[in-house]
Structures are given as C-alpha cells and as structure tokens.
Amino acid sequence: MMWNFRLLLLPAMLLPIVRWFICLVVLLLAIPAVAAERILALTPAACEMMYAMGAGDELVGASEYCNFPEAAKRLPRVANYRQLYVEAALRQKPTLAIVLHADLPGLEVLKASGVRVFTTNPTRVAGVFDDMLRLGALSGHQKQAEKVVGALRKRLKLLQKSSARRKPRVFYEIWHDPLITAGGGSLINDVLDEMHLKNVFGELPLEGPKISVEAVLLARPEIIILPDDSRVAARKRFWRRWFGGKALCFVVADADLLHRPGPRLVQGMEQLQAALKEKSCD
After folding, report:
1. Which of 13, 172, 202, 248 is the most exposed place for a label (fewest CB within 10 A)?
2. Domains delineated in the chain
3. How far apart are CA 129 and CA 133, in angstroms?
4. CA 183 to chain centre
5. Which residue, among 136, 211, 121, has the nearest Cα to 175 in the 3D structure?
6. pTM (predicted TM-score)
7. 3 state DSSP class of 224
8. pLDDT tens digits for 209-266?
C-alpha cells in the first residue's frame, strides 16, 4: 500500500523539474539570434576573400572593381579606390567595412556611425593568408577561413617544390608608360621570391618604382614578365628592339590574379609557373 502511495506522489515530485525546463526553453527562445554582419568589401581582394569563406550573403556593398565571383558584380557600388560614396554606403546599414587604407576619404563618417573598419593591404603571400584568417574570425566564419587557407598553403608548398632552384633573373613590367616595376616593398616581389625567381629590382624599397629603359638593360633580366592585356605583342617588339640581338624570354602573367592579395593569388602563381615552363625565348 505504501509503495502505491509513493508511485502516486512521483508526478508531483517532477513538477518543479518540468517547470524549470519550460522556463529554460522560453528564455532560450526569447534570446535573439546573433545578427549576421552587413559587410562593405571596398577592395576586389576583400570581395574574393569573403566569398571564398562563405560570407558572400553578408556583403551589402562593394568597390567599383569587385568583379569576382559573378555574384560580386551585382553588389551595390559604394566606393572606388579614391573615395567612399558616403550616402550610398550608409544606406546599406553596414556593421563592418574592409578597406585598403584607413585614410580613404569618407571613411571617417562610417567610423563615427559605429562601423568597424578592417584594413587589409598585405605585401607578402603569408600576409594574405593571415588577413583571411583574421577576417574569418571577425565575421564569424573562422572555420571556413581556416579550411580555405589550409588548402591554399598546401597548393603553395606543392608549387614551391616544383619551382626552379636556380632563381632566374626576371623583370616584372607592371605598366609601360611610365615604366613601372615591382619593387622590394610589393606583393609581386614576394610572389616572385616564393616562386624562387630573382626580381632584378627587388632591392628598390618602393612598392611600384618608376624606372628607365636603361635601368632594365643594365639589370640584365633573363625573363621579362608582361601583364596580360592588349599590349603584349607591342611590348615584346619594344623590348626586342632595345635588347638588340640578345635572346629574350617572355612570359605573360594574369594581372587580375597576381595583383590582388586574395584567395586567387595562388592560382595566379600556378599559372605563372606553367607559363615559365612553356616560355618563348627568341
């Protein structure tokens, strides 16, 4: 009889636990979900970084030159490399802005509105990876960023293993008028170094120094790397005239990949390495 009485009391004993559980569920449902970031990607590389780590849906604005991936072309344009379009940017109600330089005109208005600002302008390949990891952590995509960077580092190691060990002397022509090359303070210089290539102007401290034709002749490059644009044939003829009968090797680089410190940089290095193996020498 006593045993049956205890069984009858058991549901009553559980009532406090049930009430506590219901309160906990109600509280959890009442807590608002963590809001997604509203990100302005104000450099092409920043656009590519965010899409690569799966944060494309959080982008609400971009710079004029964000053109990859295809979805980036549909983002509202809120800046160019000279300035921020302040009103257009504020209309997007951003929480985070990714910029090349912290002194971009108009950026101070975003800061005053409470928008966080992340500056990314790496001059080393390792710095590109580091910035991607930092952006992943900042935007809530840390695991995705770690996965992307891990894969890129593996590809870079494979590329380095198959690169030439002799370090041939190369001249990298960034622009032709005025003649601009990659100096020692540039990402391109580090790219060439990672690929075991000797930049003939790597000792110059500037990022993109202006040089003379005579300086190129005196530097005695074995390979001339040209950007992939409509002037390739004309630039080849130009340098052949200046070097006279000396044998020259030309390689064409994908500037859209190599000049952007983003996730496609390694792809650009892989393409450059393939072109070096198939280079045309006169």
Report:
1. 13
2. 39-157 (3.40.50.1980), 163-281 (3.40.50.1980)
3. 6
4. 20
5. 211
6. 0.83
7. strand
8. 999 999 999 999 999 999 998 799 999 999 999 998 777 899 999 999 999 999 999 9
